[in-house]
Request: fold
Amino acid sequence: IRYAVREVSVLSHRVEKTIKAEPERIWSILTDGSHYPDWNPSVDRLEGDIAPGEKIGLYVKINPGKAFPVKVSRFEPPLLMTREGGMPLGLSKGVRTFTLTPDSNGGTVFKMEEVFSGPLSGLIGKSIPDMTEPFEQFGRGSKAAPEA
Reply:
């Protein structure tokens, strides 16, 4: 008997902002975890180093006192970073991707998207609160901080 586990994406969130700053400036802010609470009102704190292969703990106001452990899985300064977290064996997985694209006006198009997938993500997805406002807060902060 063979069983095939199909990976299903059940939930995704995305924010996009045009920022009047170069990718290097934005990247320096995105990779400085100790200052996340200074510009992102949805974050209480971030523990660990935002660097290739590193594990970090993200503490957010929407779920106080609980760390979301994630691993920095892709790190291509100053244009792309991916962080992943989830359940063992890929039963549920969240992948957050940050993309910085220079525009023709000397600014940057910043995109952040998170996709949840895996065979148990349907169940897990029902317990995830609406992330629209935290994503918007992140987007507003990621724009305001480098433009300041």
